[in-house]
Write a structure and sequence with these properties.
mainly alpha
C-alpha cells in the first residue's frame, strides 16, 4: 500500500500541520460534546468536571478555524489581489452553498444534535467581503463584534416569532443555535490570525499569550458573577443572560473566554508542530489527529451518518440519552480517526473536501 504521497501532502512545506492538528482536536471535542455526558461547568480544582471543557469550546474552535482556513485560501499574510480575489470570493460562496446543502441533508437523518453546517455556511458568506482586509482592521473588527453582538443577540433572541413553527424552521435553516451575528466574530478572529502570519513565531507567541490571558479573565469574571451557578444565565433578564460564559449562551464572557481559548489553542498547535514540520516524531505521533483535521467536514459528516445508522440499529433513533447509554464515544472516535488516517495516506484529500473544491472550481472559472 503506497502511503508516501499521502504523507507528502500532509507534510508539504506550504501546509500548516498545526492547523490540521487544531482541527483534529476540534473534531474530537465535538464528538465528546455529542456522545459523552459531561459537566455543564468546569471546576479547575475538580478533575471529574474537566470533560466539560468540550461544551461550546469545541464548536467555537471550529468556527475560528474556519476563519483561519479562509485566510489561508485567500493569500495568508497578504490578501490576494484582484482579479484573483474575485475568483476566490466566488468559490467561497459556492463552498458556503454546498455546506448549507450538506447541513440540511445531515439534519434530515434525525440525529438529535444541532448541525453546525448551516450556520457555517452563513458565516462563510458573511466573511467573503472581508478577505481583502489585512490583519489590523480584522483584529479591530473581531473585537468590536465580540463586544457588541452578544447584546444584539440577546435582543434578537427575545423575538416571540422564534417560538412559532415557522420561526423554528427558520432557526434550523440558518443554524440559530450557533447565531451567526455573534459567531462571525470567531471567523473574523481566525481570518485575522491567518493574516498576521502563522509562520511567524512572535505572532504565534503573542496569540498564545494574549488568547490565554483574555480567556482566563473572561472565565474568572464568569465565576465571580455566579450567574451560571445560580441558573440566572438562562432567565429572562437580558443583562444577566449576556453577562455569562455559559456554553452556547452567546454571552459576552463566553465569546471572549471561548474565543480567546480558541486563538490560544490554534497558536499552541502550530508552535508544537513547527519544530519538525509535521514530519518528525511529534507529527507522526499526532498523525491521526492531523489526518482527521485535514478533512474536518468529512469527519463531522461521518459522525452524523454513523450515528444515524447505529441509533437505528439499536432502536434508539432520536434518543440522545439512549444512544449515549450504549457508550459510543470511543468506538466512533477511534473509527473516525482510523478511517481518516487511512484515507489521507492512501487517497489524499477527504471526499467531501475534494468534491466541494471541485464544484467550486467548475462553477467559478478564471476568465
Amino acid at each position: 500500500m503506497a502511503v508516501a504521497p499521502g504523507l507528502s501532502r500532509l507534510d508539504a512545506p506550504g501546509r500548516i500541520a498545526g492547523a490540521d492538528l487544531a482541527r483534529g482536536l476540534a473534531v474530537i471535542g465535538m464528538l465528546a460534546a455529542h456522545l459523552l455526558v459531561t459537566d455543564d461547568a468546569v471546576d479547575p480544582t475538580d478533575a471529574s468536571t474537566w470533560d466539560g471543557v468540550v461544551n461550546g469550546n469545541s464548536s467555537i474552535l471550529f468556527a475560528t478555524l474556519a476563519g483561519v482556513s479562509i485566510g489561508l485560501l485567500t493569500g495568508g499574510r497578504r490578501p490576494v489581489a484582484a482579479p484573483r480575489r474575485g475568483i476566490l470570493q466566488g468559490r467561497l460562496l459556492v463552498r458556503a452553498a454546498a455546506l448549507w446543502i450538506v447541513g440540511l441533508a445531515l439534519m434530515l437523518l434525525g440525529v438529535p444534535v444541532y448541525v453546525i453546517l448551516p450556520a457555517y455556511a452563513v458565516m462563510f458568506a458573511l466573511a467573503v467581503p472581508l478577505v481583502g482586509l489585512t490583519a489590523r482592521p480584522l483584529w479591530i473588527l473581531a473585537g468590536a463584534l465580540a463586544a457588541v453582538m452578544p447584546f444584539v443577540h440577546a435582543f434578537a433572541a427575545s423575538w416571540p416569532g422564534w417560538q412559532t413553527p415557522l420561526g423554528g424552521d427558520v432557526s434550523l435553516l440558518i443554524g440559530w443555535h450557533y447565531p451567526f451575528e455573534v459567531w462571525i466574530a470567531f471567523v473574523v478572529a481566525g481570518l485575522a490570525l491567518a493574516r498576521s502570519g502563522l509562520d511567524r513565531t512572535p505572532v504565534l507567541a503573542a496569540a498564545l499569550a494574549g488568547g490565554a490571558l483574555v480567556s482566563g479573565i473572561a472565565f474568572a469574571l464568569d465565576a465571580a458573577t455566579g450567574a451560571r451557578a445560580s441558573g440566572a444565565a438562562s432567565g429572562d433578564d437580558d443583562g444577566v443572560r449576556v453577562w455569562t460564559a455559559e456554553p452556547h449562551s452567546s454571552g459576552l464572557l463566553e465569546v471572549w473566554g471561548s474565543g480567546g481559548l480558541a486563538v490560544a489553542i490554534i497558536a499552541a498547535c502550530v508552535l508544537l508542530c513547527r519544530g519538525d514540520g509535521g514530519g518528525g516524531i511529534v507529527g507522526r505521533i499526532l498523525l491521526p489527529l492531523r489526518a482527521a483535521g485535514s478533512m474536518p467536514l468529512t469527519a463531522y459528516a461521518s459522525q452524523i451518518v454513523v450515528w444515524a445508522i447505529a441509533a437505528a440499529a439499536l432502536g434508539v433513533p432520536g434518543d440522545l440519552a439512549g444512544f449515549r447509554e450504549a457508550q459510543p464515544f470511543w468506538p466512533m472516535t477511534l473509527g473516525i480517526l482510523a478511517g481518516c488516517t487511512l484515507w489521507a495516506l492512501v487517497l489524499g484529500r477527504g471526499p467531501l473536501e475534494r468534491g466541494i473544491e471541485g464544484l467550486a472550481r467548475v462553477v467559478v472559472r478564471p476568465r
